[in-house]
Structure to design on (520 residues):
């Protein structure tokens, strides 16, 4: 039963001094926890970044390796292209020189450029024109030169001139050797 | 939940303060869950809270946060009325502006709210938890008698008296009396005293009006009958044997009260009873017994006056009001 006119004040163990003390401890504890959490987070971020960087490095290494392979291939292609270009240029010059060798009165019907030789098919009015105007420059270029003639219907002579630079014979349509065929002039 | 755990861990300090006429009694009990650990009592010769008193109390209340400071309301504007019904309260006293509490759903004690504010202001430095009415102290102190007897109960403090008439725990009448300033107005009262006494005790008038009573008075006048024990039996029935035995055991009573103080108290009690008999609002019943809770050390004169002048059977019990307040505080808090 309640006898008092007033109700007792609320009792608490948290006196103002204790409240102040607890506040300070709470703030300090909170700061410690916050610092710890911050460091844990930073550590986590650091480990994650490190992992990402390592992965990126591996990817980059892989990419570099692939690119190096591609570069090597492209370099090879480039060299091959250059070689082909040079070869073509040489061939072009050779053909140009060949056609320069052929006089006006002789008509070439076929020319086969071999690796170490040249076979010419054509029509000449007579042997002398051939011998003096075509045979002579061919002999100066090739070490061996053979010519064979057979008569054409119009009285001219068809000829086959086989020229080669080495000791071995010139093989026509040799599958192993590169061969250039040039149509009738 | 947490507060209950803390409450169980800490001791409780009950600081009980009673401000009398010129001094303040402080009684402190330190109570644990197992029971009373220590108690200390001191008296300070000041009505206000002095530095030494504050220091004394602070030395105990600083030991535990569970400190309960209780005071006795000694303000003049307080009292008790014999109803708990809000509608009937105004019939006895205008309690607007009062703080009031119902006791056991039978009667109400009240005091003015501004008096409570004054007390709270006075004990602002220490804080105040409980304020008790002297009527509650009286009712609890004489609980064994109030529940079974029809009697007048008086709590005598230094400068104040709380007077109540109970009939089997039903309050019939209550008055809070200031005896502190009676001395100042003694001259004024003394002029009217003789007439008051005549007015107060009109037993002769009452008897004359009633024919049967006259006949009984004729019997009463027979001296021979007076000598016989049988006729006195009616009186002896109202005697509280248990209380008499107790009073005999407490025969050694320290007397601090002067003749004048006791006479003043007697006068005020007489006036109060007269008021009770005359006021139609109260259910007047003839009072045969008076129980006095003596906190000041009254002399035998008061008892003698009451017995001889008012034909009351008077029993005096010593009371330590601060201890009683402490018990009330413990009841209130639930220790």
């Amino acid at each position: 039963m309640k006898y008092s006119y007033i109700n007792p004040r609320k009792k608490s163990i948290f006196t103002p001094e204790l409240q102040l003390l607890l506040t300070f401890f709470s703030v300090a504890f909170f700061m410690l926890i916050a610092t710890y959490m911050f460091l844990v987070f930073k550590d986590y971020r650091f480990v994650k970044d490190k992992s990402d960087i390592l992965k990126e490095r591996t990817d980059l290494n892989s990419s570099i390796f692939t690119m190096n392979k591609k570069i090597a291939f492209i370099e090879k292609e480039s060299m091959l292209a250059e070689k082909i270009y040079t070869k073509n240029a040489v061939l072009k010059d050779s053909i140009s020189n060949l056609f320069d060798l052929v006089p006006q009165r002789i008509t070439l019907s076929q020319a086969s450029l071999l690796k170490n030789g040249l076979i010419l098919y054509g029509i000449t009015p007579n042997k002398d024109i051939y011998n003096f105007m075509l045979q002579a420059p061919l002999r100066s270029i090739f070490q061996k030169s053979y010519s064979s003639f057979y008569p054409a219907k119009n009285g001219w002579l068809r000829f086959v001139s086989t020229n080669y630079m080495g000791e071995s014979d010139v093989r026509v349509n040799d599958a192993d050797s590169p061969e250039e065929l040039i149509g009738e002039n | 939940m947490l507060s209950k755990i803390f409450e169980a861990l800490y001791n409780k300090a009950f600081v009980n303060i009673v401000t009398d006429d010129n001094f303040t009694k402080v009684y402190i009990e330190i109570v644990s869950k197992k029971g009373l650990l220590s108690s200390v009592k001191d008296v300070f010769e000041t009505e206000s809270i002095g530095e030494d008193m504050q220091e004394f109390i602070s030395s105990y209340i600083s030991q535990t946060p569970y400190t309960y400071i209780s005071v006795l309301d000694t303000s003049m504007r307080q009292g008790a009325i014999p109803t708990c019904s809000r509608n009937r309260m105004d019939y006895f006293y205008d309690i607007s502006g009062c703080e009031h509490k119902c006791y056991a759903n039978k009667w109400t004690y009240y005091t003015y709210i501004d008096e409570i504010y004054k007390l709270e202001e006075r004990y602002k430095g220490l804080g105040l938890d409980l304020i008790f009415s002297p009527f509650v102290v009286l009712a609890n102190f004489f609980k064994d008698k109030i529940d079974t007897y029809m009697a007048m109960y008086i709590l005598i403090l230094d400068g104040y008296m709380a007077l109540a008439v109970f009939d089997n725990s039903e309050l019939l009448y209550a008055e809070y009396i200031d005896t502190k300033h009676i001395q100042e107005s003694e001259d004024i009262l003394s002029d009217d005293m003789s007439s008051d006494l005549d007015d107060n005790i009109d037993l002769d008038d009452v008897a004359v009006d009633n024919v049967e009573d006259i006949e009984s008075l004729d019997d009463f006048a027979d001296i021979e009958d007076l000598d016989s024990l049988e006729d006195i039996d009616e009186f002896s029935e109202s005697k509280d044997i248990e209380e008499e035995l107790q009073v005999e055991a407490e025969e050694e009573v320290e007397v601090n009260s002067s003749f004048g103080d006791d006479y003043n108290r007697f006068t005020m009690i007489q006036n109060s009873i007269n008021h009770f008999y005359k006021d139609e609002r109260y259910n007047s019943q003839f009072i045969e017994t008076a129980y006095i809770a003596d906190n000041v050390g009254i002399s035998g004169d008061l008892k003698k006056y009451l017995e001889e002048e008012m034909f009351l059977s008077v029993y005096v019990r010593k009371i330590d009001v601060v201890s009683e307040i402490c018990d009330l505080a413990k009841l209130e808090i639930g220790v």
